[in-house]
Amino acid sequence: MKRSHIPELGYIKILEGANESLLLVKDEKIIAAWNLNAESLEETHENKAMNMININPESRIEVYQLEDNMFSTIVDLNEECRLPLPVGIDFLLEKSVKEVNRGDVLSKYRIRDPSEDDIDNLLNDYKSKIGGR
């Protein structure tokens, strides 16, 4: 995840294994945190929820931007999640997965880029099936 992906006002949802974390973000600072362990149904808030965040290559990260009124409402409704002091977004960026090299992913899953001949053959095959249109 890059700094440019972080909204000015919004939240970040992190799904990792049995954990789901929500971080409320304002002006590149995390102002509230919540975590749910889906197996035990245990909820944690504030700093303890921040400590539960684990990001690995299998994690799913969703980023949502909110307008000011909606953000304020969510913060008010989740007062128990508010951090005593905001945490810089660098905390999350340092935990996030490094950039993935396209070549490494293609190699790992044994995917090869099609050659121009492969593309021509596919197009010709398609044209022959639809009657040469």
List the helices and strands and how they pair.
Elements: E1 9-16, E2 19-26, E3 29-37, E4 42-45, H1 46-51, E5 60-65, H2 68-77, E6 82-88, H3 90-95, H4 102-108, H5 116-129
Antiparallel strand pairs: 1-2, 1-5, 2-3, 3-4, 3-6
Descriptors:
alpha+beta; 32% helix; 6-stranded antiparallel β-sheet; 133 residues
Rg from alpha-carbon coordinates: 21 Å
**SS element count, helices:** 5
- Unreliable stretches (pLDDT < 50, length at least 5) are none
The first-to-last residue Cα distance is 44 Å
Largest sheet: 6 strands, antiparallel
Q: Write the H/E string, N to C.
A: EEEEHEHEHHH
Shape descriptor reads elongated
Q: Which bin fits the share of residues in helices?
A: 25-40%
The computed structural class is alpha+beta
Mean pLDDT: 84
What percentage of the residues does DSSP assign to strands (E)? 25-35%
Kindly state the number of beta strands.
Answer: 6
